[in-house]
Design goal:
9 strands, three-stranded parallel beta sheet, alpha/beta, Rossmann fold, six-stranded mixed beta sheet, 10 helices, single chain
């Protein structure tokens, strides 16, 4: 699987790289960022932590702002930050709202035209990208964990819910808990699924929990001063669903924190350590 290195930076003894490949799943070029620790200190194969970013983001948001490299270098983690949507294709309406389309694909597979040809992020993340990473880096895909912020928190929960046993642990920071029941998600339901709510609910973390799906041990942090908490994130729905399913979890309300990457950076290290505990 051909992989083009866009750039690479030395960081804490390891390498922070940016890579591009042609995706057969999305039919577009796809970018991702990947950190590898110093192989002299942590010989591979390395366990993998996936971090999914939120609305408006590219891999750069997490890579540049969260401060993950120092912790990943210490713990011997390969940290992969995929892109948030297909690039290189322009569809009518894909740039109309920041909460839909480019940089806002919700990590699902669309079923309606014209979106279904390219907006297949769930299949891309589930199947193709792990194969690309495994073919090009010394990783151990028997040891995986996943995390994400906002829409990426939704994605992390979604991936773990729909792939039982793949991820040893999951975490999320201010996740969109139920995208079919928040204003941001209305556009996604209308366009990605032509308004078919049942089809959309197959990618809704709270709906999946309510239907009986389970999760491994889970850590969730939510800012108490998050401007999107009440209307968009619907955290109480997630808390109730986790309790109802008996998921071992820790959902922490963090007073004074908002939705920004200052919040993500404040708790990124704790999340990486939590995930790494299960990957040793």
């Amino acid at each position: 699987m051909q992989l083009d290195t866009q750039k690479a930076h030395r960081a804490f003894g390891g390498t922070q790289g940016y890579y591009r490949h042609q995706s057969a799943v999305t039919g577009t070029p796809m970018d991702f960022a990947l950190y590898t620790p110093d192989p002299s200190r942590h010989p591979g194969p390395w366990p993998v932590v996936w971090f999914l970013s939120g609305l408006t983001c590219t891999p750069d948001n997490f890579v540049v702002k969260a401060g993950s490299q120092r912790v990943a270098a210490e713990l011997g983690l390969c940290v992969v930050a995929p892109d948030t949507s297909p690039r290189g294709v322009d569809l009518d309406g894909d740039s109309e709202h920041y909460w839909f389309g480019k940089s806002a694909a919700y990590y699902l597979d669309a079923s309606a035209e014209p979106w279904k040809k390219h907006y297949r992020m769930f299949s891309y993340l589930s199947q193709e990208l792990p194969q690309v990473v495994e073919a090009n880096f010394s990783v151990d895909l028997e040891r995986q964990a996943i995390s994400g912020h906002s829409m990426g928190g939704h994605g992390a929960l979604l991936m773990a819910l729909k792939h039982p046993g793949r991820f040893k642990r999951v975490s999320a920071l201010a996740p969109i808990s139920s995208f079919t029941r928040c204003p941001w998600g209305e556009t996604a339901v209308e366009r990605f699924f032509a308004g078919d709510l049942v089809a959309a609910e197959a990618y809704d973390p709270v709906r999946l929990l309510e239907a009986g799906a389970g999760l491994p041990r889970t850590l969730i942090d939510q800012g108490g001063s998050d401007q999107f908490l009440t209307e968009q994130l619907r955290t109480p729905l997630l808390a109730a669903a986790l309790e109802s399913r008996g998921v071992k979890h820790n959902l922490r309300m963090q007073p004074g924190y908002d939705h920004s990457y200052f919040f993500v950076a404040s708790f990124c290290e704790e999340h990486l350590r939590f995930l790494a505990e299960a990957l040793e």
